Structure formats: C-alpha cells, structure tokens
C-alpha cells in the first residue's frame, strides 16, 4: 500500500540476514527453502474471472472504525444492496487487523479491540452470507503501516496455516520491509505455503509492479499489482490506467493484471470521473474491489458499482483485457473481445474539455456487416449503426458500448450522435454562439427529427437556424445555430445546457437522445502581467493531492506544501504540482505569453523526473524535455497569442510518477 510518490522506507540488507529470515524457527518451507523445486502451474480453478469484492483500506486506512462491526456491516450490505447478486463476493481486511507482536509461539494475534472474537468469527459471519473473507500481510518482516505489524517473511507456512484455519479465502500479500530478498522467491514461498494448507485461497501479489510480476507470476498468484497505490484523484487514476493498459497480453483466466482497488464513492472525483474509473477497470478485466465505506455510500455510488452490464464486460469468461485501438490528444478508444464475439468499446476522454471520439466496427475487430447492434451500457439502450461508433464525450467522461454483428440490428432505432461546436465559455452578461448537430449513424433513416436546447433559469437560449428535419438518412446531419446569453451578475462557475434530439425509427418508434453540455461563466483575464497562482483556473488535475498555490505539492492534503524550492533557489510565487498534472486557464483570446521557471522541487531530493508542457487551444507551444531532481530550474516561455484556453501540463518523464513533485515557479501570464 505504498503511495505512488513516497520515498520508500523498505530497508535493504544483505545475504546472511535474508537467509536467516527465510529459515528462522523452521517456519519457512522445510523441503523447498532452497528454491530448487519446480514451480507448479496454477491449475486450481481459482479466479477464472477477475475477483470482485471489497477492501477497507481506501476508505478507513488504519483508523479505529476498521473493525469487526464494519466488516460484518459490509457483508450485510453486499446482500441487502444487491452487490452479491451482481457478482461481488470477497470482503477483504487490509493492514492493521493484527497486534504489533506475535505470541510466544510465533503466531499472529488479531487485535482484540478491533476483532474481539477473532478472525474466524468474522469469517464465519461472512461465509454465512454466502460470501468470502480476505486478509492481508506483507512479504517482509513488517507490514506497510508505520505501527509495524508483523509481516510473513520467514513465517510463511505458519501464517498461511493460520489463515486457512480461520477460513480465509483471499490473501493480499504486500511488499514492504522485504529486506532485499528476491521478489520471485518471496512470493513463490507464500504460494507454496498456501498450497500446503489444502484450502483454496486466491493469492493477490501486491508487489507494486517493481519486478514486472506479469512476466513471471502467472504460476505464482491469481493476480498481481502492476503499479503503486491508487489515490482518490483523477490524475492518479489516469496514471495507473496508462501503466496497466499496455499489459493486456499477460491477463487471462486465473492470472490478472491488478491496477489497484476502486476509489468510486470516496469523494475525490466527480460521478462522471468515477463512471470512467469503473468503465476502464472493467474493460481492462481488472479486479473490482470496492474501496469506499458502503455504510456511507450515496445512491449514485451504488448505481455505478451495481451496473450489471458494465460488470459483465469485466467478468466475461473469455478473460481478455481490453487493448488500445487509438489514442491522440486525450481521446482514447479501447476495445475488448467478448466470448460471444461482440466487442466492448470504451470512448474515454482524458482531457478537461468535451471531445468527439470515434471508431468503427472493423477497427475494433468485428467483421464487415450491413449493420451492427450497438448497446449503450450506461444508458441501457440499443441502437443500430452502419459501423461508426462515435460520441461527444464530456470532459473526463467515458462512453461504454457493446457492439455486435447481429442479424437483428433492424429491430433497433438508428443511433444518432449529438454534437457541439463553440459556446464553451460565456462572460457574465454576454452571449455565446454555438452550433449543435444531430447525425444519423444508423443503417436506417431517422425521421421527423427535432432538436432542443435549454439552459438554466433566467438564461436566454434562441435558435438562429432550423431545429427540425423531415428525415436524416445514414450519415446526414441537422445543424442548428443557437445564441446563449447568461444574465448580468451570473456567478462564475459551470452551468449545464440540456441538448435533446427526438426522432422516429422506420418502425414508428419514437426515440429520444440527450446529452448535457457544460458551459463556463468566467471573467476575462486581467490586462498586463500577473501571477498564474493568483488567477482562477478552470480545472486542475494532479497525480498526488491537489495543485497548490505558492507552495510545493507537499503530500496528499490541501495546504501541506512547503516554499517552492528548485536547486536551492526559493520562490515566493508559483504552482506546486505532481505528475501527471493538467492546469487549465481561460485566456479569452486576449493573452500573449506564459513564462515560468520549472523543475523538480527540492522536497524530493533523491528522485523525480518530469517534463513540462504549455498548450494553447490543443496545440503544444512549449516544452522542456525530461528534467530530473538534480537539475536547476529551467526557464520556459510560451507564445499563447490568440488562445482561448491555456493548459500547463506535467508528464512523468516516462518512468512512472514516484517523487514527481513539479514546480511552475514564478509562473506569469501577459494579456
């Protein structure tokens, strides 16, 4: 459970101590400790689809509310809220369940304050609900928590037998305090210990991807972490997504890539972002382990976690992980082959602005056909398409569909795409011109088409061109101009406009399609030169904690940074970020130049590699290349003349995001 940015505290010691730990007190494998035995294949039938369940860490960490009552309450909710019926079955305990010391016989001791009746009693309760129990330890001398709970290194066979005796069904095996012992050796020893118990226990290798377990762990565990810990932020989720996507070839029934637990419902992202998180984990055939306290979860959270059509993508028995079909400028198409021959397709918008994302049936691997059935897995509606799959995807949103070469396609109405040009920003009391489009993507004609656009109360929305069409054949569009006016005094912020299209299919069925357009009421930038840290941004994504104003990134909480310092030079003004980061400003086509001194903050003195970029309306206008922690601040100047939006972007330098604390020191804009 190592956060992705931190300086690891694992101690590296050599030879004699490592060997002694593996042989101490006869607790490691007596016959296979020399590692010469051949590793058996995992033909045990476990985890034939990605495990689904719950883990407490993301919501409770080591706080006192992690106890037997919580675990049993989660099991109750699995049943009461239909999550068990949807496929969730594991209720997993993370760190802090044990006392810091073993007993006189070297046995693990459950914390009596948290689990007064022991772990077996909790397992019995969970099993009585038709569910399964998971537990946690580390492949080291201690677990990851600073309290120093006992790890299993040197105690593998004893600990595994305790877990089995308690009725444990799942083990998460972490990587902290590993004493420099070879990872494959440590994780293989626990595999053999679990097997020796005779109890089927799903084995989750939490090695953080440091030694590429996807290359060697298929016959060791049923799943392996591919990254550091996830955080409850858009930047963290996207970073992990990008690290896990290229590993599709290693996933399959009984051996899964694990990009870490779900953050859905924990509050650090919007519902749109959480739907993207859930969609992308599902199309990657990732384990779906709920990380929020379901006792406090909103209905919106349950609606995401309980979407059975999305879960079916994750749980498809063919076991393929989705692969990237295309990726450009934050527009991603990821497709997953399903056992019935259909394809799940995700149109994922990484960017902070709505974007049109498109692909085709043949591009995602389907054969040519007269038409296809397209099922929208979030709207739960079916359409026919001539082959195009496209949508205007909201910022940080995902459209997830299932596409099939189905001979019954004509029973469904034609798919239509709703589009928008312009109108993203309005200044208070001002107007914006925008154009909507309704395009028939289906093989059949959309008839009696009409479109409407409505805004918040008090706003004026007026069509400036026809909003109806008698018919739209395949590929044809109805384009309508609109003038949108925000009243004087409208508070700054984001506002929704509702775009709706209504049409008839050739069978006479009336169909409606709707989307929400977000427009932002914002002030024009001030004239002259000003500090960006004094300006209001449109959005700010960050890989660890929030972007900080006039301090470094610090840790995961707001306001925990330090004076911005690069190469021992201290700056009073600037922005403290952490890769991957994307900070967006409205410049209203009136600004000319952005300047900053950029580099890795000195608070990460031993690591960190980043690259800085400035974008103007989708065009990269300045960049640094990769900078390291050992380099002084680099001056960066960008010409942003005529841009409506300017973005400050930090990428991870190509080696992951550990310690990537990035400063935009003395950042200024001239307008």
Using brief descriptors, characterize the structure shown.
671 residues; alpha+beta; 6-stranded antiparallel sheet; disordered N terminus
Describe the structure.
- With 671 residues, the chain is α+β, with helices and mostly antiparallel strands.
- Helices cover 16% and strands 33% of the residues.
- It contains eleven helices and 38 strands.
- The strands form eight sheets. An eight-stranded parallel β-sheet has the order 7-6-5-4-3-2-1-8.
- α3 runs parallel beside α5, α6 (156-166) crosses α7 and α9 packs parallel to α10.
- The longest helix has 15 residues, at 183-197.
- It is globular and about 80 Å long.
Q: List the total number of helices.
A: 11
Number of strands: 38
* Euclidean distance between termini CA atoms: 45 Å
Shape: globular
Structural class: alpha+beta
Q: Major beta sheet, specifics? A: 8 strands, parallel
Give the strand order of the largest sheet, numbering strands 1, 2, ... along the chain: 7-6-5-4-3-2-1-8
Mean of residue pLDDT values: 92
Helix content: 10-25%
